[in-house]
Amino acid sequence: MRKPRATAATSGPDGLASAGDVAAIVAGTHGDPFAVLGVHEVDKGFVARCFVPHAEFVTAYTLTGKNAGELSKRDEGGFFEGSLSLRKRQPLRYHARNAGGDWWLTDPYSFGPVLGPLDDYYIAEGSHLRLFDKLGAHLIDHEGASGVHFAVWAPNARRVSVVGDFNEWDGRRHTMRVRRDTGIWELFIPDIAAGRPYKYEIIGPDGVRLPLKADPFAFKSELRPATASVTALPPVHQWGDEAHRNFWRNADPRREAVSIYEVHAGSWQLHDDGSFLSWDELAGRLIPYVVDTGFTHIEFMPISEHPYDPSWGYQTTGLYAPSARFGDPDGFARFVDGAHRAGVGVILDWVPAHFPVDAHGLANFDGTALYEHADPRKGFHPDWNTAIYNFGRREVVSFLVNNALFWAEKYHVDGLRVDAVASMLYLDYSRKAGEWIPNEKGGRENLEAVSFLQRMNKEVYGHHPGVMTIAEESTSWPKVSQPVHEGGLGFGFKWNMGFMHDTLEYFSKEPIFRKHHHGDITFGLVYAFSENFVLPLSHDEVVHGKGTLLSKMAGDDWQKFATLRAYYAFMWGYPGKKLLFMGQEFAQRREWSEARALDWNLLDFRAHRGVWQTVRDLNYLYRSRPALHARDCEPEGFSWLIVDDSANSVFAWLRSAPGGNPVAVISNFTPVPRDDYRVPLPTAGRWREIINTDATDYGGSGKGNGGAVEARAEGGGISATMLLPPLSTIMLELAPD
């Protein structure tokens, strides 16, 4: 059921629009143009009124081409009206003429609304889970015409118009209809198709015209520095990834191998002239590389539309639009499908914590603090000079929840890594006393943000089983990765920032001093199973003067490479899912910059190739050995073998899981080989060496144990005597009988 169309209450007894209405339409100040323009019943007949600048003559026709009447010019600005020879109300086309020529246009004000009462109800309630089918710009057929339906939320605006090249960016021509129950403005504009740039011209509550605004629900955007939204066809890609999606729908990701390759799509590789690869070109290069290197997932830094390259996508202005930097949105769908067909998942970095204050974006959207808090103590982020979403407003929560569902449904993404969760959870994040407002209970917790995150996770897991959410949360907030019904935030996983910090701090120390920092390694196991963890060596660690992972390792060049290989094997043997930022898999020497491609020529050098081969082999072992992944999140899968040998900086532990042989992980973090080193093992017998990071194939010195050691029962226990190579990690697997 649609709302009844408004009629011209201000027309005179002759059916003519009042002079005030005419002047307001021409000036673009009328509060309800549908009450004046379009088709209206007068004395059992119909009149038509239209605003067509530049026209001298206008004739009305039905959509079938029947002449319905000549319209008279009421105002030199382009206001026309006249009687119609119609028996029933229907949409009209106009033939406009002037001395320079003629043109046809279909009258948007002769059509009824597209949204209905049920939309109003669920939108107002904040429970609408298909907003992306209702808001934004949608190509539709409506009442016999083809065109685009536009809808945008701007409850405090005096007027909202669609502007674009189709109306000379003139906000008087396509003023929208307001649905007052929800603050949604909508308009069906016939005769425009895909590929047309548009924005919204908004007059705020104070009567001031705002800078033109991009569509918050735009599905496509112009390439920066242009900032308009673009009308787009819905995705038409024919998916062929059902096998991949079925696997993850039925899997418990905590018990699967998850090894993530973090990628900045704009700088992984570039064309020779420095321009971006398209999604199809990335698919042809990145997917085979990831498959060859053995990662299970690609995690993209934010790919939604953003104006500023050095923000890396974390200051997004178009949450629903894949960035135009890499081509059409369908290209991203093809990339995801191609990755899935190759057995690789795709995770997106997602940024619901804050948004930039660019004039064309969400800030002060309808002349008020609509998406953000008005009070800067809650609505402005001092670290990034950005606005903070108002998580207490149901329409804002609905906007963000729908966005998470949108990427899962429309683009089949496998997961969302949620950025800057800690900044959302704490009202005093990066603020001094007096710069923040306590919650209703007097505390520092952002209860509205907690509620939003819980709802987002419930909706994503409820509607899209197989999709995982991952929190970048750097504090000790409890139960981040536990279900909402158990009092948790509901994420699937949490980044283990403590692991990253402590281990990098340890490996930056000269080996001779590491014995004094033994606890940097052992402490992490105190809390390793308090959450479902991802171990991240992310982009944040290799930018802003921090240097690359290779440069962080202590010692000379040989020691740096040896330590990095040992570190990776230590991490792949450690409980938790894995994440490595691009370039670190081959020991990039230069700090990462979004402005240039990775230094791929380094793979021609033995030391760098050896690191890449180490990562490749570790990924193979991690995926093929249940002991190394099936109990990543369960304490039953881990036990220390050697925890207290700080004098030698040696660590050893056992990984185990049902369905696989146990694996012992042994690390020697000094450059001194340890001969005849005794390691306790749980079972007597032959233990095969399945990786040794000191192997010559990796660029090491080649010291080892001939491929295996023998564990024997001696002195009331079982142990094996072995050589621990310098600055190395080895893994031993109990050989089958």
TrEMBL record:
Q: Any idea where the Glycosyl hydrolase family 13 catalytic domain is?
A: 262-629
Q: Cellular component per GO?
A: cytosol
Q: Which InterPro entries match?
A: A-amylase/branching_C, Branching_enzy, GH, GH13_cat_dom, GlgB, GlgB_N, GlgB_N_E_set_prok, Glyco_hydro_13_N
- Kindly tell me the pathway this chain contributes to: Glycan biosynthesis; glycogen biosynthesis
What biological processes does GO assign it?
glycogen biosynthetic process
Has UniProt tagged this entry with the keyword Plastid? no
Please indicate if the UniProt record lists rRNA-binding as a keyword: no
Q: SMART domains recorded for this chain?
A: Aamy
> Which reactions does this protein catalyse?
Transfers a segment of a (1->4)-alpha-D-glucan chain to a primary hydroxy group in a similar glucan chain
Give the main EC class.
transferase
Could you list this entry's UniProt keywords, alphabetically sorted.
Carbohydrate metabolism, Glycogen biosynthesis, Glycogen metabolism, Glycosyltransferase, Transferase
* Family stated for the protein in its record: Belongs to the glycosyl hydrolase 13 family. GlgB subfamily.
This chain belongs to the protein called: 1,4-alpha-glucan branching enzyme GlgB
Lineage runs: Bacteria, Pseudomonadati, Pseudomonadota, Alphaproteobacteria, Hyphomicrobiales
Q: Which gene encodes it?
A: glgB
